[in-house]
Description:
The structure is a single chain. This protein is mainly α. It has one domain. Helix content is about 70%, strand content about 0%. The chain contains three helices and no strands. Helix 1 packs across helix 3 (about 65-80). The longest helix has 22 residues, at about 30-50. It is globular.
Amino acid sequence: MLNIIWSIIIGFIVGLLARWFYPGAMHLGFWLTALLGIAGSYVGGLIGTLFKKPVDGQIFHPAGFIMSIIGSVLLLFIVKTLGYM
Length: 85
């Protein structure tokens, strides 16, 4: 249960930073911002594994927080380009 709460909190922080880096106003609430951050973390992790595979049994990927923000900004760009916002 605690993992889910931390995922939501960190996802919200990553989503806020991604919205801050992306130009233009984004009118998203708390839950959409948190989902953006969580999804961006997965996208950033996938991009990070393309460049360097994590060691077996490693929980934390070295790309980490920065790749999460880059993944969230990339998701914002895709969603904005497709016209969903």
